[in-house]
Amino acid sequence: MQANYLQRQAEFKARLEQQGYSAMLVLGHENIRYLSGFSGNAAYALITKNDCILITDYRYHQRATAETSGFDVVCRDRDTESLGDCINRHLAAKSHVAFDASYITVAVWQDVEKALSNHTFAPVTGLIEQQRRVKDAWEVEQIKAAAAIADQALAETLPYFKEGVTERDLALELEYRMQKLGSEGMSFATIMLFAERTALPHGNPSSQVLKHGDFITLDFGAVVNGYRSDMTRSYILGEASDKQISIYKAVQEAQQASLAFVKPGINCLALNAASQQVLDDAGYGEYAGKGLGHGLGLFLHEVPFINTLTDYTLEVGNVITIEPGIYIPGYGGVRLEDDIVVTDTGYEVLTHAPKPFII
């Protein structure tokens, strides 16, 4: 992995130079991990033309030294040195510095800026995230491993889907099994919803009890080495009505229609349009979720996003979700989501849990 980090650092330094910056202050934990390997928090990274510096404190110094590649780790004494002063002593005179604007509060930045009056600063967003869009082989393997954990955990939890169980109990069971199988916590807060509550795209599990004929929607993911999986399955317990079958079939066909387009060189707008057309033709277009999917990696929702706004052409190594959904208030909904990686010839599905509608 050391070579991977060194390559990422070299590529990012070249990006900085192209943008006209002499340095960048990196503040997002996922961005720091991507460039350095450090998995903790309470850290700040400073990337210059010649150096990569990780600033942390006594709580993380040993861990950062062990985990990072290509970085000099600085242990700042928070009692005697401000963050701004520490950054200042590692910057060349009158540097033009970019900073990760999405990951710092105004109050903290104003305090830091006071110590850096000799330099000019520019807020930037998405500079590192653009580099993160294309995953290397190691990154893809971590997402595959996380997806495999989620697949297995769901298989072990399905026998508990019975009348009388609550949303909260099933969510906890699923999370317990993912962690027993090796997940580093949850990719995000597990969504487990029954009946009419499945019309909530991102509802929280409640004490609602599962009944015969209910819709079930579960959206969840595991984490391996910081990389996340994200999968949604929808079921009916026992017996489905004609309308429930119609909704499920429309979502299933919408997902397949968009997947049929996936390959390098295809624009994300085309994927979204293919899915929406199926849902429109089935009569459910007004109930469709806004957006078809998103990039996936160290962060749950990464670029590229698949919606009506993102003009992005797929590249080999993009890992994305394809997750069409129908959400009818007061009645219920269905979402099907899989993780895929774009390959030279098309795509590879990373999530393999079966999709039986009736359980």
TrEMBL record:
Q: Does this UniProt record's set of keywords contain Protease?
A: yes
Q: Does the keyword Protease apply?
A: yes
> What does the UniProt keyword field contain?
Aminopeptidase, Hydrolase, Protease
Domain annotation Peptidase M24: ranges: 141-344
The molecular function terms of the Gene Ontology recorded here are: aminopeptidase activity
User: Which top-rank group of organisms is this from?
Assistant: Bacteria
Provide an example Pfam family for this protein: Creatinase_N
Per UniProt, residues of the Creatinase N-terminal domain are: 8-134
For this protein, the record's Gene3D superfamilies field holds:
Creatinase/methionine aminopeptidase superfamily (3.90.230.10), Creatinase/prolidase N-terminal domain (3.40.350.10)
Protein name, entry field: Xaa-Pro aminopeptidase
